[in-house]
Amino acid sequence: MKILVIGTGAREHAIIHSLHRETASGAAAHELHAAPGNPGIAGLATWHTVDPLDGTAVAALAEEVGAELVVVGPEAPLVAGVADSVRAAGVPVFGPSGEAARLEGSKSFAKEVMAAAGVPTAMAHVCTDATEVAAALDAFGPPYVVKDDGLAAGKGVVVTDDREAALAHGEACLSHENGRVVVEEYLDGPEVSLFCVCDGVTVVPLVPAQDFKRVGNDDEGPNTGGMGAYTPLGWAPAGLVDEVVSRVAQPTIDEMARRGTPFSGVLYVGLALTSRGTRVVEFNARFGDPETQSVLARLMTPLSEVMLAAARGRLAELEPLRWRPEASVTVVVASEGYPELARSGDPITGIEDAESLPGVHVLHAGTGLSTADELVSAGGRVLSVVALGTDLADARRRAYEGVAKIGLKGSHHRTDIALRAERGEVTVP
Ligand code: AMP
Ligand code: GLY
């Protein structure tokens, strides 16, 4: 199958890596195309230049390469309606319409849909001025949770005990054009990411994973796009996935269909397992990064079949998904200064050495080529080192052996990805 993947991150590299593996194993013969891609992706797919936010240009590229499936990875093109343009050109596309992607693009819209569908989530107030923000903060009390209503690349949420800081973030969000702020109740308990593949009607859950959003060990420091992930979650209650499908994903998909804006692609359900039960923290309209790197490493069913079935509205016909029993740990290597200011242009070494370790592969995100054609850093999150192992301890050990082989001046990573889970210290209140 000819497949075009839109995006530049380690998530898109993970998707291409899975599709390439199907071809390498002889299970399929794909012709892979990617845009804008990155140097890691370029080794596995034909690399094209396109503005990922320009639906007309993406649809034209899809027709030019004869794509039989287009996969739109990141949220910004989805919210901009790029999947609509591709679909209008008659090419099957994995990813929601711009209308359906509002589940991620507007937190207040997501709250409205959750309320209509009876989905359990944090209580929230949508505020349009500073007085309302202050009143909402005092109504809920600390810890304060303040969210920009719109897309903010993981930087729109502040969780703090400091009322002044909470107010200041609210005011900063309000200062954008049509700025709106969501102030909500604090949710205690461990977080889980569950990706639900949807075709507008049917929901097929993948395996749950956990993400590490803060930059430092022990969840210290500012939020990032995600510093690591692992699966499976041995500590999660039995029946969690079924509960989330029946109480969250299916009612949401049914409500979106009822509104005439059916959701297809990945509904990423971000959950907190709180003392008062399972609650939705957020919806995203795409695969999560870095959880995807670990989840896809365990998927044995060909990913192309899953995505094509979703794009064609045929998920109900899909055989049950098959998974490797191994554990998978992903550690993100970030450049100096991330997430405040990311240093770029430093040479990267050791990827081949890391990949020579059993069960380890390395995915690119913020990488580029220098004028001398040398691999250099070109962004905040530079690489994802992904390892499979017999259990979490084994996968962790391998992932960190891989990280140790990588050379990048000033780079940093968390050393505690999956550590508390390995030690059996994650508990649901
Ligand atoms: P979001 O962009 O909505 O995913 O939020 C980013 C992160 O902020 C989440 O992964 C949580 O760690 C934290 N967060 C968001 N909402 C809440 C909440 N209501 N209670 C506690 N933490 C939250
Ligand atoms: N892993 C968090 C995200 O993709 O938004």
Secondary structure layout plus pairing:
Blueprint: E1 2-7, H1 10-24, E2 31-36, H2 39-42, E3 46-47, H3 55-64, E4 69-72, H4 75-79, H5 82-88, E5 93-94, H6 102-105, H7 107-117, E6 124-127, H8 130-140, E7 144-148, E8 157-160, H9 163-174, E9 181-184, E10 191-199, E11 203-205, E12 210-211, E13 214-216, E14 220-223, E15 228-231, H10 240-258, E16 264-274, E17 277-284, H11 291-298, H12 303-311, E18 327-334, H13 351-355, E19 360-364, E20 367-369, E21 375-377, E22 381-389, H14 392-405, H15 419-422
Helix pairs in contact: 1-11, 3-5, 7-10, 8-9
Bound molecules: adenosine monophosphate (AMP) and glycine.
Question: What is the gist of this entry?
Answer:
The chain is an alpha+beta fold.
Main sheet characteristics: 5 strands, parallel
Strand order of the largest sheet: 3-2-1-4-5
The CATH superfamily of the largest domain is known as ATP-grasp fold, B domain
Mean pLDDT: 95
Helical segment count: 15
Q: What is the 3D form?
A: globular
Strand composition percent: 25-35%
- At the fold tier of CATH, the topology name of the largest domain is D-amino Acid Aminotransferase, Chain A, domain 1
| Total number of distinct structural domains | 4
Euclidean distance between termini CA atoms: 47 Å
Bound molecules: adenosine monophosphate, glycine
Keywords: ATP-binding, Ligase, Nucleotide-binding, Purine biosynthesis
InterPro entries: ATP-grasp, ATP_grasp_subdomain_1, PreATP-grasp_dom_sf, PRibGlycinamid_synth_ATP-grasp, PRibGlycinamide_synth, PRibGlycinamide_synth_C-dom, PRibGlycinamide_synth_C_sf, PRibGlycinamide_synth_CS
Organism: Promicromonospora iranensis
Family: Belongs to the GARS family.
